[in-house]
Amino acid sequence: MTIAEVSKKYDISADTLRYYERIGLLPRVNRNKSGIRDYSEEDCNWVEFIKCMRSAGLSIEVLIEYISLYQKGEHTNQARKEILIEERDKLILRIDELNKTLERLNWKIEQYGKWSK
Amino acid sequence: MTIAEVSKKYDISADTLRYYERIGLLPRVNRNKSGIRDYSEEDCNWVEFIKCMRSAGLSIEVLIEYISLYQKGEHTNQARKEILIEERDKLILRIDELNKTLERLNWKIEQYGKWSK
DNA sequence: ATAACATTTAAACTTAACTCTAAGTCAATA
DNA sequence: TATTGACTTAGAGTTAAGTTTAAATGTTAT
Asked: What is the CATH number of the domain that holds B96?
């Protein structure tokens, strides 16, 4: 797949895809004879994974670390698992906080409802 | 209360408090005879509200709009309510997305568990 | 085979949201 | 009363995460 196709499929700009690869957030994508990126299915899976994790607030920094460990092979499994657990726990706290704020917003909206009908 | 006290109480730097006031994200705080900020209880309530809403991801831009409407008086109630509803709905979607990612992380962590124990 | 368009790289630029600096004022303390 | 330390403003600097630009090369449709 070309960068344009991947960009469209995952709704991430080609610029961002190149940027992610440049900083090591995506494993290096193979080029064809003329130097143009040709994304494999595994590349696409990484793109999708990164998109999902970024949208959940995981920092680029921590994801670079995760990918770097992945590329070092199976002996990094424990370390990778620890990263995921740490991020998972942060996410739980975050969701909790957001739910509290949601309740607060709901309450405030109700107050407005009392006069503004 | 002085800016240092408010800063400590809400864990927001004095720089940030001044910055928020400067850009209209906080209503202008009264100064004493020598020009030093003296935060009233209402000021503090705003600080706490802003902190909470920012941490939930509401943009500074939308909060400035909300506060600006507030300062224009009761006839802006409907508009303010609409802002809150819009942000509340965005927040619900966000929480939903985060919960899905949380499930995915949990699943991945379990996969790691299978070999790395 | 030439115009029009996509891709490449490196590097500069942008944006949101702060954060720091400089130069000055003011209040409390030694 | 001299110094120490918090506060003031305006404006410059920082950070994370892209986005845009420039200059070159490659590809496709006529």
From this structure: 1.10.1660.10
